[in-house]
Design goal:
2 copies of one chain form a homodimer.
Chain A: H1 5-14, H2 22-35, H3 37-53, E1 55-56, E2 63-64, H4 70-73, E3 81-85, H5 88-95, E4 102-105, H6 118-121, H7 123-132, E5 137-140, H8 146-158, E6 165-168, H9 184-192
Parallel strand pairs in A: 3-4, 3-5, 5-6
Antiparallel strand pairs in A: 1-2
Function (chains A, B): May play a role in DNA repair. It seems to be involved in an RecBC-independent recombinational process of DNA repair. It may act with RecF and RecO.
Family (chains A, B): Belongs to the RecR family.
Zinc finger (C4-type) (chains A, B): 57-72
Chain lengths: 199, 199
Protein backbone atom coordinates (compact mmCIF):
# COMPACT_ATOMS: atom_id res chain seq x y z
CA UNK A 1 0.00 0.00 0.00
CA UNK A 2 1.05 3.58 -0.41
CA UNK A 3 0.35 6.75 1.50
CA UNK A 4 -2.49 8.96 0.33
CA UNK A 5 -1.45 11.66 -2.21
CA UNK A 6 -1.27 14.63 0.19
CA UNK A 7 0.74 12.63 2.76
CA UNK A 8 3.06 11.34 0.03
CA UNK A 9 3.58 14.89 -1.24
CA UNK A 10 4.42 16.03 2.30
CA UNK A 11 6.90 13.16 2.78
CA UNK A 12 8.63 14.04 -0.50
CA UNK A 13 8.74 17.74 0.40
CA UNK A 14 10.23 17.06 3.85
CA UNK A 15 13.27 15.53 2.17
CA UNK A 16 14.58 19.00 1.26
CA UNK A 17 15.61 19.24 4.92
CA UNK A 18 19.29 18.37 5.36
CA UNK A 19 19.84 14.88 6.80
CA UNK A 20 16.22 13.78 6.36
CA UNK A 21 15.78 10.52 4.46
CA UNK A 22 12.68 8.55 3.50
CA UNK A 23 12.07 6.97 6.90
CA UNK A 24 12.57 10.15 8.92
CA UNK A 25 10.33 12.03 6.47
CA UNK A 26 7.55 9.44 6.97
CA UNK A 27 7.80 9.62 10.74
CA UNK A 28 7.91 13.41 10.69
CA UNK A 29 4.87 13.68 8.40
CA UNK A 30 2.75 11.35 10.54
CA UNK A 31 3.99 12.97 13.76
CA UNK A 32 2.93 16.41 12.52
CA UNK A 33 -0.45 15.14 11.27
CA UNK A 34 -1.20 13.31 14.50
CA UNK A 35 0.35 15.52 17.14
CA UNK A 36 1.03 19.06 16.03
CA UNK A 37 -1.00 20.42 13.14
CA UNK A 38 -0.93 23.99 14.42
CA UNK A 39 2.86 23.83 14.77
CA UNK A 40 3.12 22.50 11.22
CA UNK A 41 0.97 25.34 9.90
CA UNK A 42 3.13 27.85 11.79
CA UNK A 43 6.18 26.25 10.18
CA UNK A 44 4.60 26.54 6.72
CA UNK A 45 3.95 30.22 7.29
CA UNK A 46 7.43 30.88 8.71
CA UNK A 47 9.00 29.11 5.71
CA UNK A 48 7.01 31.17 3.23
CA UNK A 49 7.68 34.47 4.98
CA UNK A 50 11.41 33.79 5.36
CA UNK A 51 11.96 32.52 1.81
CA UNK A 52 10.10 35.48 0.33
CA UNK A 53 11.25 38.14 2.80
CA UNK A 54 14.92 37.43 3.49
CA UNK A 55 17.49 38.70 1.02
CA UNK A 56 21.11 39.77 1.34
CA UNK A 57 22.61 42.82 3.03
CA UNK A 58 23.91 45.19 0.35
CA UNK A 59 26.99 46.01 2.38
CA UNK A 60 28.25 42.77 3.98
CA UNK A 61 26.15 40.31 1.93
CA UNK A 62 24.93 38.27 4.89
CA UNK A 63 21.30 37.09 5.01
CA UNK A 64 19.07 40.00 5.94
CA UNK A 65 15.51 41.13 5.42
CA UNK A 66 16.61 44.78 5.39
CA UNK A 67 18.66 46.37 2.60
CA UNK A 68 21.48 46.87 5.10
CA UNK A 69 21.70 44.49 8.06
CA UNK A 70 21.74 45.45 11.74
CA UNK A 71 25.44 44.54 12.05
CA UNK A 72 26.41 46.97 9.30
CA UNK A 73 24.16 49.72 10.71
CA UNK A 74 25.40 49.39 14.30
CA UNK A 75 27.41 52.61 14.98
CA UNK A 76 29.21 51.10 17.99
CA UNK A 77 31.22 48.60 15.93
CA UNK A 78 34.85 49.04 14.95
CA UNK A 79 35.06 50.44 11.41
CA UNK A 80 38.77 49.69 11.10
CA UNK A 81 38.39 45.88 11.19
CA UNK A 82 36.88 43.70 8.44
CA UNK A 83 36.38 39.97 8.90
CA UNK A 84 35.88 37.91 5.71
CA UNK A 85 33.96 34.62 6.07
CA UNK A 86 32.54 32.00 3.70
CA UNK A 87 28.89 32.13 4.76
CA UNK A 88 26.23 33.68 7.03
CA UNK A 89 26.56 30.84 9.59
CA UNK A 90 30.22 31.83 10.06
CA UNK A 91 29.13 35.38 11.00
CA UNK A 92 27.15 33.95 13.93
CA UNK A 93 30.12 31.79 14.93
CA UNK A 94 32.57 34.72 14.88
CA UNK A 95 30.09 36.97 16.71
CA UNK A 96 30.14 34.56 19.65
CA UNK A 97 33.85 35.19 20.14
CA UNK A 98 33.21 38.81 21.04
CA UNK A 99 34.57 40.22 17.72
CA UNK A 100 33.07 43.66 17.18
CA UNK A 101 34.37 44.78 13.78
CA UNK A 102 32.60 44.61 10.43
CA UNK A 103 32.03 41.59 8.18
CA UNK A 104 32.05 40.60 4.54
CA UNK A 105 30.35 37.33 3.58
CA UNK A 106 31.65 35.51 0.50
CA UNK A 107 29.43 33.02 -1.32
CA UNK A 108 31.53 30.03 -0.26
CA UNK A 109 35.11 29.52 -1.43
CA UNK A 110 36.98 29.40 -4.73
CA UNK A 111 36.41 26.04 -6.38
CA UNK A 112 37.65 26.02 -10.00
CA UNK A 113 36.50 22.41 -10.53
CA UNK A 114 32.92 23.47 -9.77
CA UNK A 115 33.30 26.56 -11.94
CA UNK A 116 33.36 28.90 -8.92
CA UNK A 117 35.83 31.66 -9.67
CA UNK A 118 36.36 35.04 -7.94
CA UNK A 119 33.24 36.60 -9.51
CA UNK A 120 30.99 33.73 -8.38
CA UNK A 121 31.98 34.09 -4.72
CA UNK A 122 31.78 37.89 -4.72
CA UNK A 123 35.41 39.04 -4.76
CA UNK A 124 34.66 42.16 -6.90
CA UNK A 125 32.06 43.28 -4.33
CA UNK A 126 34.60 42.64 -1.56
CA UNK A 127 37.19 44.89 -3.24
CA UNK A 128 34.55 47.59 -3.71
CA UNK A 129 33.57 47.30 -0.04
CA UNK A 130 37.21 47.64 1.05
CA UNK A 131 37.77 50.66 -1.19
CA UNK A 132 34.65 52.36 0.21
CA UNK A 133 35.55 51.62 3.84
CA UNK A 134 38.36 52.86 6.06
CA UNK A 135 39.74 49.56 7.26
CA UNK A 136 43.18 49.17 8.74
CA UNK A 137 43.06 45.36 9.04
CA UNK A 138 41.34 42.63 7.04
CA UNK A 139 40.97 39.27 8.83
CA UNK A 140 40.66 36.31 6.47
CA UNK A 141 38.44 33.85 8.36
CA UNK A 142 37.66 31.39 5.59
CA UNK A 143 37.60 27.75 6.68
CA UNK A 144 40.95 25.99 7.28
CA UNK A 145 40.34 23.65 4.34
CA UNK A 146 42.31 23.43 1.11
CA UNK A 147 39.73 25.59 -0.69
CA UNK A 148 39.41 28.04 2.22
CA UNK A 149 43.22 28.44 2.39
CA UNK A 150 43.41 29.00 -1.37
CA UNK A 151 40.62 31.58 -1.17
CA UNK A 152 42.37 33.40 1.70
CA UNK A 153 45.68 33.36 -0.16
CA UNK A 154 44.08 34.67 -3.35
CA UNK A 155 42.37 37.54 -1.54
CA UNK A 156 45.53 38.38 0.42
CA UNK A 157 47.39 38.76 -2.88
CA UNK A 158 44.73 41.10 -4.26
CA UNK A 159 44.98 43.28 -1.14
CA UNK A 160 48.79 43.36 -1.06
CA UNK A 161 49.11 46.92 -2.39
CA UNK A 162 46.28 48.54 -0.51
CA UNK A 163 48.24 49.50 2.61
CA UNK A 164 46.20 47.20 4.85
CA UNK A 165 47.26 44.65 7.44
CA UNK A 166 45.98 41.32 6.11
CA UNK A 167 45.75 38.57 8.72
CA UNK A 168 44.67 34.93 8.78
CA UNK A 169 42.99 33.19 11.73
CA UNK A 170 45.43 30.97 13.66
CA UNK A 171 45.71 27.23 13.09
CA UNK A 172 46.56 24.98 16.00
CA UNK A 173 45.18 22.62 18.59
CA UNK A 174 41.44 23.04 19.32
CA UNK A 175 40.76 23.59 23.04
CA UNK A 176 40.02 20.29 24.76
CA UNK A 177 41.80 18.34 21.99
CA UNK A 178 44.39 15.63 22.53
CA UNK A 179 47.79 15.59 20.85
CA UNK A 180 47.59 11.89 20.05
CA UNK A 181 44.26 12.32 18.27
CA UNK A 182 44.91 15.46 16.23
CA UNK A 183 46.15 15.21 12.65
CA UNK A 184 49.79 15.90 11.78
CA UNK A 185 49.07 19.05 9.79
CA UNK A 186 47.27 20.69 12.69
CA UNK A 187 50.01 19.71 15.14
CA UNK A 188 52.69 21.09 12.79
CA UNK A 189 50.80 24.39 12.66
CA UNK A 190 50.47 24.37 16.45
CA UNK A 191 54.25 23.88 16.86
CA UNK A 192 55.20 26.44 14.22
CA UNK A 193 52.79 28.98 15.73
CA UNK A 194 54.00 28.50 19.33
CA UNK A 195 54.12 31.55 21.57
CA UNK A 196 56.19 32.51 24.59
CA UNK A 197 54.34 32.04 27.85
CA UNK A 198 53.93 35.38 29.59
CA UNK A 199 53.92 34.99 33.35
CA UNK B 1 24.12 39.27 18.00
CA UNK B 2 20.82 37.72 17.09
CA UNK B 3 19.29 36.54 13.84
CA UNK B 4 16.93 38.88 12.01
CA UNK B 5 13.23 38.52 12.98
CA UNK B 6 12.09 36.37 10.02
CA UNK B 7 15.07 34.02 10.36
CA UNK B 8 14.51 33.77 14.11
CA UNK B 9 10.84 32.98 13.53
CA UNK B 10 11.80 30.25 11.05
CA UNK B 11 14.33 28.74 13.49
CA UNK B 12 11.69 28.65 16.24
CA UNK B 13 9.12 27.12 13.89
CA UNK B 14 11.51 24.40 12.71
CA UNK B 15 11.70 23.11 16.27
CA UNK B 16 8.25 21.51 15.91
CA UNK B 17 10.03 18.82 13.88
CA UNK B 18 10.81 15.79 16.04
CA UNK B 19 14.48 15.57 17.05
CA UNK B 20 15.32 19.10 15.87
CA UNK B 21 17.00 21.27 18.54
CA UNK B 22 18.26 24.85 18.42
CA UNK B 23 21.49 24.12 16.54
CA UNK B 24 19.92 21.87 13.90
CA UNK B 25 17.13 24.41 13.42
CA UNK B 26 19.69 27.18 12.80
CA UNK B 27 21.62 25.10 10.29
CA UNK B 28 18.43 24.01 8.55
CA UNK B 29 17.10 27.57 8.29
CA UNK B 30 20.34 28.94 6.81
CA UNK B 31 20.69 25.91 4.51
CA UNK B 32 17.21 26.47 3.09
CA UNK B 33 17.74 30.22 2.71
CA UNK B 34 21.09 29.79 1.00
CA UNK B 35 20.64 26.62 -1.02
CA UNK B 36 17.04 25.62 -1.60
CA UNK B 37 14.43 28.35 -1.42
CA UNK B 38 12.16 26.70 -3.98
CA UNK B 39 12.28 23.40 -2.05
CA UNK B 40 11.42 25.26 1.14
CA UNK B 41 8.44 26.94 -0.54
CA UNK B 42 7.28 23.53 -1.83
CA UNK B 43 7.57 22.22 1.73
CA UNK B 44 5.50 25.13 3.05
CA UNK B 45 2.77 24.41 0.53
CA UNK B 46 2.83 20.64 1.17
CA UNK B 47 2.58 21.25 4.92
CA UNK B 48 -0.41 23.56 4.52
CA UNK B 49 -2.22 21.25 2.11
CA UNK B 50 -1.64 18.15 4.23
CA UNK B 51 -2.55 19.76 7.57
CA UNK B 52 -5.74 21.22 6.11
CA UNK B 53 -6.68 18.38 3.81
CA UNK B 54 -5.87 15.16 5.70
CA UNK B 55 -8.42 13.89 8.20
CA UNK B 56 -9.33 10.45 9.47
CA UNK B 57 -11.02 7.54 7.69
CA UNK B 58 -14.54 7.13 9.09
CA UNK B 59 -14.24 3.37 9.03
CA UNK B 60 -10.72 2.44 10.19
CA UNK B 61 -9.69 5.85 11.60
CA UNK B 62 -6.31 5.95 9.91
CA UNK B 63 -5.08 9.21 8.37
CA UNK B 64 -6.87 9.82 5.09
CA UNK B 65 -7.92 12.73 2.92
CA UNK B 66 -11.04 10.85 1.79
CA UNK B 67 -14.01 10.08 4.06
CA UNK B 68 -13.20 6.38 3.69
CA UNK B 69 -9.59 5.39 2.97
CA UNK B 70 -8.37 3.31 0.03
CA UNK B 71 -7.61 0.33 2.31
CA UNK B 72 -11.20 0.21 3.56
CA UNK B 73 -12.62 0.63 0.04
CA UNK B 74 -10.44 -2.06 -1.56
CA UNK B 75 -12.85 -4.93 -2.44
CA UNK B 76 -10.04 -7.50 -2.74
CA UNK B 77 -9.19 -7.47 0.95
CA UNK B 78 -10.25 -10.11 3.45
CA UNK B 79 -13.39 -8.93 5.30
CA UNK B 80 -13.10 -11.65 7.93
CA UNK B 81 -9.87 -10.33 9.46
CA UNK B 82 -9.49 -7.15 11.54
CA UNK B 83 -6.11 -5.95 12.75
CA UNK B 84 -6.10 -3.42 15.61
CA UNK B 85 -3.08 -1.12 15.89
CA UNK B 86 -2.11 1.91 17.95
CA UNK B 87 -1.48 4.39 15.15
CA UNK B 88 -1.36 5.08 11.39
CA UNK B 89 2.39 4.33 11.19
CA UNK B 90 1.62 0.80 12.43
CA UNK B 91 -0.75 0.27 9.49
CA UNK B 92 2.14 0.87 7.08
CA UNK B 93 4.36 -1.49 9.09
CA UNK B 94 1.77 -4.30 9.08
CA UNK B 95 1.03 -3.75 5.37
CA UNK B 96 4.64 -4.55 4.56
CA UNK B 97 4.22 -8.05 6.00
CA UNK B 98 1.70 -8.95 3.29
CA UNK B 99 -1.35 -8.83 5.63
CA UNK B 100 -4.47 -8.27 3.52
CA UNK B 101 -7.34 -7.99 6.01
CA UNK B 102 -8.94 -4.83 7.39
CA UNK B 103 -7.62 -2.43 10.03
CA UNK B 104 -8.80 -0.42 12.96
CA UNK B 105 -6.52 2.35 14.25
CA UNK B 106 -6.76 3.28 17.94
CA UNK B 107 -5.59 6.67 19.16
CA UNK B 108 -2.62 5.23 21.04
CA UNK B 109 -3.02 2.98 24.07
CA UNK B 110 -4.82 3.06 27.40
CA UNK B 111 -2.90 5.24 29.81
CA UNK B 112 -4.93 5.99 32.97
CA UNK B 113 -2.18 8.17 34.45
CA UNK B 114 -2.45 10.49 31.43
CA UNK B 115 -6.24 10.38 31.60
CA UNK B 116 -6.51 8.25 28.46
CA UNK B 117 -9.37 5.80 29.00
CA UNK B 118 -11.25 3.62 26.51
CA UNK B 119 -13.26 6.55 25.08
CA UNK B 120 -10.13 8.63 24.46
CA UNK B 121 -8.46 5.95 22.36
CA UNK B 122 -11.61 5.07 20.40
CA UNK B 123 -12.78 1.77 21.91
CA UNK B 124 -16.51 2.59 21.45
CA UNK B 125 -15.92 3.17 17.72
CA UNK B 126 -13.98 -0.11 17.56
CA UNK B 127 -16.91 -2.04 19.06
CA UNK B 128 -19.31 -0.36 16.62
CA UNK B 129 -17.00 -1.25 13.73
CA UNK B 130 -16.85 -4.90 14.85
CA UNK B 131 -20.64 -5.08 15.23
CA UNK B 132 -21.13 -3.64 11.74
CA UNK B 133 -18.57 -5.94 10.13
CA UNK B 134 -18.52 -9.71 9.61
CA UNK B 135 -15.16 -10.52 11.14
CA UNK B 136 -14.21 -14.02 12.25
CA UNK B 137 -10.87 -13.02 13.78
CA UNK B 138 -9.60 -9.90 15.49
CA UNK B 139 -5.81 -9.55 15.68
CA UNK B 140 -4.60 -7.33 18.53
CA UNK B 141 -1.41 -5.75 17.19
CA UNK B 142 -0.84 -3.06 19.82
CA UNK B 143 2.82 -2.57 20.79
CA UNK B 144 4.45 -5.15 23.09
CA UNK B 145 4.83 -2.56 25.88
CA UNK B 146 3.13 -2.58 29.28
CA UNK B 147 0.46 -0.17 28.01
CA UNK B 148 0.03 -1.98 24.72
CA UNK B 149 -0.41 -5.32 26.49
CA UNK B 150 -2.94 -3.81 28.88
CA UNK B 151 -4.86 -2.30 25.96
CA UNK B 152 -4.89 -5.64 24.11
CA UNK B 153 -6.03 -7.46 27.24
CA UNK B 154 -8.79 -4.94 27.88
CA UNK B 155 -10.13 -5.17 24.32
CA UNK B 156 -9.90 -8.99 24.34
CA UNK B 157 -12.12 -9.04 27.44
CA UNK B 158 -14.69 -6.76 25.77
CA UNK B 159 -14.80 -9.08 22.76
CA UNK B 160 -15.03 -12.31 24.78
CA UNK B 161 -18.75 -12.92 24.17
CA UNK B 162 -18.93 -11.91 20.52
CA UNK B 163 -18.13 -15.32 19.02
CA UNK B 164 -14.85 -14.10 17.50
CA UNK B 165 -11.37 -15.52 17.54
CA UNK B 166 -9.25 -12.91 19.34
CA UNK B 167 -5.50 -13.25 18.76
CA UNK B 168 -2.38 -11.40 19.85
CA UNK B 169 0.77 -10.97 17.76
CA UNK B 170 3.55 -13.33 18.89
CA UNK B 171 6.34 -12.25 21.21
CA UNK B 172 9.78 -13.75 20.79
CA UNK B 173 13.24 -13.22 19.35
CA UNK B 174 13.47 -10.60 16.59
CA UNK B 175 15.09 -11.99 13.42
CA UNK B 176 18.82 -11.31 13.43
CA UNK B 177 18.84 -10.90 17.22
CA UNK B 178 21.26 -12.58 19.59
CA UNK B 179 20.20 -14.55 22.66
CA UNK B 180 22.87 -12.99 24.85
CA UNK B 181 21.70 -9.47 23.99
CA UNK B 182 17.94 -9.87 24.24
CA UNK B 183 16.12 -9.09 27.51
CA UNK B 184 14.90 -11.85 29.80
CA UNK B 185 11.20 -11.18 29.25
CA UNK B 186 11.51 -11.55 25.47
CA UNK B 187 13.54 -14.73 25.80
CA UNK B 188 10.99 -16.19 28.24
CA UNK B 189 8.24 -15.46 25.69
CA UNK B 190 10.35 -17.04 22.94
CA UNK B 191 10.81 -20.23 24.98
CA UNK B 192 7.18 -20.43 26.10
CA UNK B 193 6.01 -19.87 22.51
CA UNK B 194 8.33 -22.51 20.99
CA UNK B 195 6.97 -24.50 18.09
CA UNK B 196 7.68 -27.98 16.73
CA UNK B 197 9.97 -27.90 13.70
CA UNK B 198 8.13 -29.29 10.71
CA UNK B 199 10.54 -31.05 8.34
Amino acid sequence: MSFSPLIRQLIDALRVLPGVGQKTAQRTALHLLERDRSGALRLAQALTQAMEGVGYCQRCRTLSEEDVCSLCLDPRRDDSLLCIVEGPMDVYAVEQTGYRGRYFVLKGHLSPLDGLGPEAIGVPELLKRIDEGAFSEVILATNPTVEGEATAHYIAQLLANKGLVTSRIAHGMPLGGELELVDGGTLAHALAGRRPISL
